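Thread: Newbie trying to understand structure tokens

Hi all, I'm a second-year student working on a class project, and my supervisor (Dr. K.) asked me to get a predicted structure for one chain before our next meeting. I've only ever worked with sequences, so writing a 3D structure as a token string is new to me. If someone could post the tokens and maybe explain what I'm looking at, I'd be very grateful. Here's the chain:
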Amino acid sequence: MTTLFGRNPALMAVIGAVLLIAGLVIHAVLMPWIGGALLVIGGIKAVAGRRQPGPARDRDQDRSW
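---
Reply by user tm_fold:
Sure, no problem. This is what the structure looks like when written as tokens:
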């Protein structure tokens, strides 16, 4: 298998290790922010969902038929 850098396995191992470490660092830095944003969005949706009238709070609820 020929790659961009030829068939040098040592160079490929070093490049792979660098890419792996860079990916793990980026993941570790960004994931708390993404998780926090998802928690905030979920909390906002939960609060907004409680404020909307449900099916029992219809305008015909207190009518006696």
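A couple of things are worth pointing out once you decode it. The helical segments are 9-51. The radius of gyration is 27 Å. Feel free to ask follow-ups in this thread.
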